[in-house]
Amino acid sequence: MKVYLHYTEAEPNLTIKVKLPKKWRTGPTDNLKGCIVDNYNKKHATADGDTPAAVTPFDAAAYHLTLKDGTELLSDAVVQDCVKDGADVFLTSGPSKTVAEVKAVEDAKEAAKKEKESKLISCKNFGCQMKFDPAENNDQACVYHVAPPIFHETNKWWSCCPHKKGYDWETFQAIRGCKVGRHSAEKAGPKFLGGSDVRAANDPSAPKRIDGGGQPAAPSAAPAASNPVGKVVTPLEKLLVLRKALISLGVPGAEFDRARDIIKTEHESKGAEVWQIVCEKLSEHFVDALQKV
After folding, report:
1. CA-based nearest residue to 239, from 193, 208, 191, 274
2. CA nearest 43: which of 21, 70, 13?
3. 174 Cβ partners below 8 Å, 6+ apart?
4. pTM more than 0.90
5. CA Rg, the chain, in Å?
6. Pairing between strand 88-93 and 2-7?
7. How far is the CA of 235 from the CAs of 199, 272, 282, in angstroms?
8. What value, to the nearest 5°, has the Cα angle with vertex 138 and ends 132 and 143?
9. Does residue 221 register a pLDDT over 50?
């Protein structure tokens, strides 16, 4: 194994080619530093008779070694582990570091990072998904949505930004927040809304969710046994149930969506009745298909 040892920081320069014995290859890089310092002092820092030395002798403790790309060689690192055959090694100003010293610095940084992370709080603003340090929170720290998301059939959008929709999770998450402000640890509201919430917002008389929308029922007198309260299932909910059932039988969900959307487009002019018509038309198609079996 051969290496080229250089000193080029100031005149006079020095370059020597060294063939490393086995004990040097498996020894510390400090041996290489000692070699170039000794050769430099012998050549340039030693008086010759009445001729004074050209420079002050180098003190090896004041220097470290670096590779051509700037990588610093630790003084007790094994040569063959960090120096390649034919490498250029440079004597550079500044004391060497040891493996233990570098590890101690890295461990301290990691400990400081973990301590900082332990103080972080999850932001509850819609769409943020970041953690923040209350001490560093500010009016420009968070980009978020002001209202919850809506998951309706295959569409996904933020109720505050209805003009921006996604049809898969990645596209939905990429929709940038519409407001800039402080991070918040307070729950902003319901995690998401559904199709029934959208209908209720547009038409207060629309059928309510079967599960009550997660809101507790208002206290009321018990209904008479002869008039039990029934569950109202909307056409959209029927279609969602049908879609899940068909997928469980092996029918691709995309094919169901395509057929549903074609029928919906053909009868869009019917307004609020369009989903009931979609149910009826799909029912007719299923009956025709079953009769042909």
Report:
1. 274
2. 13
3. 166
4. no
5. 38
6. parallel
7. 12, 11, 12
8. 70
9. no
Strand order in the sheet with 2-7: 14-19, 2-7, 88-93, 63-67, 72-73
| pLDDT tens by residue, 2-61 | 999 999 998 899 999 999 999 999 999 999 999 999 999 998 877 665 666 667 899 999
Task: State the DSSP string of 5-42.
Answer: EEE-SSSSPEEEEEEPPHHHHTSBTHHHHHHHHHHHHH
Q: Are 232 and 206 in contact (CB under 8 A)?
A: no
For the segment 110-155, what is each residue's pLDDT rounded down to a tens digit?
A: 999 888 888 899 999 999 989 999 989 999 999 999 988 888 777 8
Backbone phi, psi, residue 155, to 5°: -90, 145
**What does the buried/exposed string (b/e) look like for 78-103 if buried means 16 or more CB atoms within 10 Å of the residue's CB?**
ebeeebeeebebbbbeeebbeeeeee
Q: Measured between alpha carbons, how far is 79 from 30 in angstroms, rounded to an integer?
A: 9
What φ, ψ does residue 2 adopt, rounded to 5°?
A: -120, 145
Residues 6+ apart with CB under 8 A from 277: 263, 267, 270
Q: How far apart are CA 57 and CA 128, in angstroms?
A: 61
Nearby residues of 140 by Cβ (< 8 Å), 6 or more positions away: 180, 181
| Domains of the chain in sequence order | 2-99 (3.10.20.90), 122-209 (4.10.1130.20), 233-291 (no CATH)
Rounded Cα distance, 194 and 199, in Å: 9
Structure-block tokens of residue 216: 């507790």
